[in-house]
Predict the structure.
Amino acid sequence: MTEVEANHNSPVFLNRFIETFFFFGSYFDCLDARMKRDDPNRIAAEAIFFGQGTKSVLATNGEERTMRNVKIDVWRSYFARFGMVEAELSTASLYHADLVAKKFS
């Protein structure tokens, strides 16, 4: 599970392109460092998630667009309108996240 910290919702194409280039580029770099190019899981991730995500951000508008990531400050102001406030993660949550991370390292 990931929480995206990118602005893929700019009305300016060049801004969306730059954000998308760096965002998906980092994923491709990670895959390149850890997986063989012919790995079926890598091929599926590149085609389904990254390929469709890039197409959604750069080549579609309106209802056709399925990916509209925004930065955390946008979410903070949105939730604040409904009286929601941020909360620290519990110690148990942090411990669990650490266990999961160690399992895959």
